[in-house]
Amino acid sequence: MNRLLPILLLLAACTTARIDLPDDAYAVEGANPRRWNQPLAFGPYRTAAVNEGTTRSWLADLEVVQVGKADQGYRLTLNGVAVECHTRELVIGRAGFFVDASLGREPLLVCGYDRGGARSVLALSRTGGAEPSLRGELREANGAAAYEVRSVHRNAGGSLPSSEPFGYEILRDGRRVAAVETINRGRVWIDPDAADRDTLAAAAASLLLFRDPDAS
User: Fold this and answer.
1) How many helices (H) and strands (E) does the chain have?
2) Burial 40-63 (b: 16+ CB within 10 A, else e)
3) Mean pLDDT score of the chain, rounded to an integer?
4) What stretch of H or E contains 151?
5) What is the pTM of this model?
6) So what's the pLDDT on residue 88?
7) Does 66 reside within a domain?
8) Coil, strand or helix at 162
């Protein structure tokens, strides 16, 4: 029983953990873990089927070690916003054993959004730190209107951070305009007064589907 107690406590924490979101946050409809080729919905936003792309990879033998890179793509449409994302992982190892080696040097997740010709790009990278472990920007393709994106590691009222993100928040000039809870069923909140709400919702869908390739 003593061995089971830590496991039961961990399962209870995962079940009840929620990040700090306003009461009007949308509950996410769709299984978690998210399933490819299944619709995802929250509030007035709904995806068409999510299309999983082909995983592309290469491997180079550098005599001492082998270096490789994997690139997993997925596409979807959310309320008329076309989305294409790529999850990238640079690995290094030997004899079939590889460890993550991206170290924040390049984006781990890159997504492009096309809303009737208005294009935006999200890039998310490792920080090398524990909190936030992931940070990036959501920016219009012309370089204007940048939002900060960062992972959230604390549940509502919690004092100790989790090693894995509970979700993400999107900020403009230091003020939160959207947030995504990725654990359990999932929730999404978008500021009713925010500009480009459709793009923020598309970014939220991308983050709901994102799985860090180095996460346990």
Assistant:
1) 2, 15
2) bbbbebbbeebeeeeeeeeeeeee
3) 80
4) strand 147-152
5) 0.80
6) 75
7) yes
8) coil
Whole-angstrom distance, CA of residue 60 vs CA of residue 90: 12
- Long-range interactions of 4-7: CB distance < 8 A, separation 24+: none
pLDDT above 70 covers a percentage of the chain that reads 71
Q: Is the peptide bond before 161 cis (omega within 30 degrees of 0)?
A: no
113 falls within a domain:
yes
- Residue 13 placed within a domain: no
Q: Are 38 and 30 in contact (CB under 8 A)?
A: yes
Give CA angle at 110 (105, 112), nearest 5°.
150
Q: What is the DSSP string of 54-96?
A: PPEEEEEE-SS-EEEEEEEEEEEEETTEEEEEEEEEEEEEETT
Rounded Cα–Cα distance for residues 106 and 212 (Å): 14
Residues in the chain: 216
Distance of alpha carbon 170 from alpha carbon 174, whole angstroms: 9
Q: In the predicted model, is pLDDT for residue 12 greater than 60? A: no
Q: Which 3-state string (H, E, C) describes 104-146?
A: CCCCCEEEEEEECCEEEEEEEEECCCCCCCEEEEEEECCCCCC
**What single DSSP character describes residue 32?**
S
Largest CA distance in the chain: 59
Please provide residue 144's backbone torsions phi and psi, each rounded to the nearest 5 degrees: -95, 170
* Residue 104 counted as domain residue: yes
Q: Please, which pLDDT band fits residue 7 given cuts at 50, 70 and 90?
A: very low
Tally of domains within the chain: 1
